[in-house]
Amino acid sequence: FRNTGGGSLEFGEPTSEDSWLQAVGAQEVDGVLEVDYVIDREGLAPGAYVGTLLVPSDNANTGRATIVIRAGETGERDMPTQYVMLLDEQAAEALRERRPISDVARFLTRGQALGDGRQAFTIAGVEPGRYVLVSGSDMDNDGFACGAFEACGAHLDADREFVVIEIDGEAPRDVGGVDVEVDFIPPDVETLMRGEAHPLRLAPGEIPLP
């Protein structure tokens, strides 16, 4: 937690309203409040959970930090279910510039787990056009893929630019067999700006799902 405004700010005691999330300590270093917390998955049904750490301050504002976890027996550690999407080039340009995408994916399917952290997919019946391929999870079920802490990736070239998939002719065809590098989105835009950017170089939570 950090004071992004002017003047001084005194932080209060961190808390959480979620039974599985508990703040256990905090220390302020160079104006940044570092909060230690523990997670108790015992008794949680399998699935994704979103919790919030709360830090009050002497100016009556409360800072919030979102914590996303998964619970349940997973066996081998696989990537969360991926939504594999074909977006038009206009949407790709918005991703490059970290602008919100207003339109949902033109074509979408769900990845099928193969184990070893891999998933396979085929998008059937893609109409002629030019597309970029993006893949992302929606662990908190908010209707957006590639949110903070979620797994996200794209079909990129060696220079980390989108590879354009072109469907020629008049007949639709299937798209599959494409390699997609997937990693977890950093929790905030500041992390991205420091050069620790995700391969997509986009702000979190900006790909709406249908």
What would your notes on this structure say?
- 6% of the residues lie in helices and 42% in strands.
- By secondary structure, it is mainly beta.
- Strands 6, 7, 11, 13, 14 and 16 form a 6-stranded antiparallel β-sheet that branches. A 3-stranded antiparallel β-sheet has the order 1-4-5, with no helix packed on it.
Question: What is the topology?
Answer:
Elements: E1 15-16, E2 21-29, E3 32-39, E4 47-56, E5 62-71, E6 83-88, H1 89-96, E7 107-110, E8 112-115, E9 118-120, E10 122-126, E11 129-136, E12 144-145, E13 151-154, E14 165-167, E15 173-176, E16 181-184, H2 189-193, E17 207-208
The first-to-last residue Cα distance is 34 Å
What share of the residues does DSSP label as strand, in percent?
35-45%
Unreliable runs: 188-199, 201-205
Q: What is the H-and-E element order?
A: EEEEEEHEEEEEEEEEEHE
Indicate the overall shape: elongated
Q: Summarize the amount of helix as a percent range.
A: under 10%
Total beta strand runs:
17
Sheet with most strands: 6 strands, antiparallel
Features:
single chain, 210 residues, mainly beta, 6-stranded antiparallel β-sheet, 42% strand, elongated
Give a quick precis of the structure.
With 210 residues, the protein is mostly beta strands. It contains two helices and 17 strands.
